[in-house]
Design goal:
Shape: globular
Pfam family, one: DAGK_cat
CATH topology of the largest domain: Tumour Suppressor Smad4
Keywords: Kinase, Transferase
Number of strands: 15
Largest sheet: 11 strands, antiparallel
Strand content: 25-35%
InterPro entries: ATP-NAD_kinase_N, Diacylglycerol_kinase_cat_dom, NAD/diacylglycerol_kinase_sf
Distance between the termini: 19 Å
Protein name: Diacylglycerol kinase family protein
Number of helices: 8
Organism: Aquibaculum arenosum
Oligomer: single chain
CATH architecture of the largest domain: Sandwich
Length: 318
């Protein structure tokens, strides 16, 4: 039997109004170890405690930022050594892009009861999904971080717009992302979004090659299978675990090509300026802030930002 531990973040958006129900569900399971965070800075110590108690399934009830902090601690500080626990993600934040792809669905109480039953059953393997995890190094304001979605240029700018204009209306998750994307695409076609999303000049190098500089509307790197609104904006992915996509600024017929970019197949007929590929390592020379799983960071102007994905984690999905 695997022990189940739960880390919950009361500051995550859905936990702000649903924490009493989550707490009651956890209290009803005497075999469950539950730590309610006062601050995400507690996560390394919590994981060391869980490792000492031999917790084999780590449930995380929070948003993308909480999950990102847990993955960083597991893979940078290695409290479990070379064998990290299985992760079970409960989507309790504002966007929950990571949990939408590799997390669990349903009410927290039902999820926790099923997790503890599954831990006793010995039928874990068929519910696992294994994913490479991004490692970013070269930030000016943080040590190396782990996550599953990196975005720069227009991605960072679009997230800020979503938080200011859409989340302020109480709209969350895919609805918020979908409205933001639709508004920006329409605004670009009408000429009203161009000042709001000016892009950024970025030099990019793949797998140790020489960097190439281009003005980008957006850049993303991910190891997720699906992003917001079920999109898969990556193709030509045979080069490695990193899924890279960029659109040059100004984009050619962006509104017309958006369905193909977001929902096309493995190969896509797009004009010059739209590029996507796989890679084992990517180095980016950039000046503006970027996002990792919804958290904003500053690049170090003295060195490139380096992205790799040499480690993997296993996620429970049912």
């Amino acid at each position: 039997m695997l022990k189940v531990g739960l880390v919950s973040n009361p500051r995550s958006q859905q936990n702000k109004r649903g924490m009493p129900r989550l707490q009651a569900a956890a209290d009803a399971l005497p075999d469950l170890l539950h730590h309610r965070l006062d601050d995400v800075a507690e996560i390394p110590q919590v994981l060391r405690d869980f490792a000492r108690h031999e917790v084999g399934i780590l449930a995380v009830a929070g948003g993308d930022g909480t999950v990102q902090a847990v993955m960083t601690s597991l893979l940078e500080e290695r409290p479990y050594g070379a064998r990290p626990p299985l992760l079970a993600l409960l989507p309790r934040g504002m966007t929950n892009m990571t949990a939408a792809d590799v997390g669990l669905r349903g009410r927290p109480g039902g999820i926790l009861r099923r997790l503890t039953a599954l831990a006793r059953s010995g039928e874990i393997e068929r519910h696992l999904r294994h994913r490479p995890i991004l490692r970013l190094e070269g930030m000016a304001d943080a040590p190396p971080q782990r996550g599953m979605f990196f975005g720069a240029a227009g991605i960072h700018q679009a997230i800020e717009i979503c938080r200011r204009r859409v989340h302020a209306l109480g709209i969350e998750a895919d609805w918020a992302a979908g409205l933001t994307i639709a508004g920006l695409l329409l605004g670009w076609a009408l000429g009203t979004s161009r000042d709001a999303v000016p892009g950024e000049t970025i030099a990019t190098a793949f797998d140790g090659a020489s960097p190439n500089e281009r003005h980008e509307l957006l850049v993303l790197v991910t190891t997720l299978d699906r992003l917001v609104v079920g999109s898969r904006p990556f193709w030509n992915q045979d080069g490695g675990p990193l899924r890279y996509t960029a659109i040059a600024h100004p984009p050619r017929r962006l509104l017309w090509h958006a369905p193909c970019v977001l929902y096309g197949g493995r190969t896509r007929r797009l004009p010059e300026g739209y590029r996507s590929r796989g890679a084992r390592s990517i180095e980016l020379e950039l000046r503006e802030p970027f996002t990792l799983d919804g958290q904003f960071y500053q690049p170090d102007p003295s060195r490139p930002l380096r992205i790799t994905a040499d480690d993997s984690l296993s996620f429970l999905r049912f």
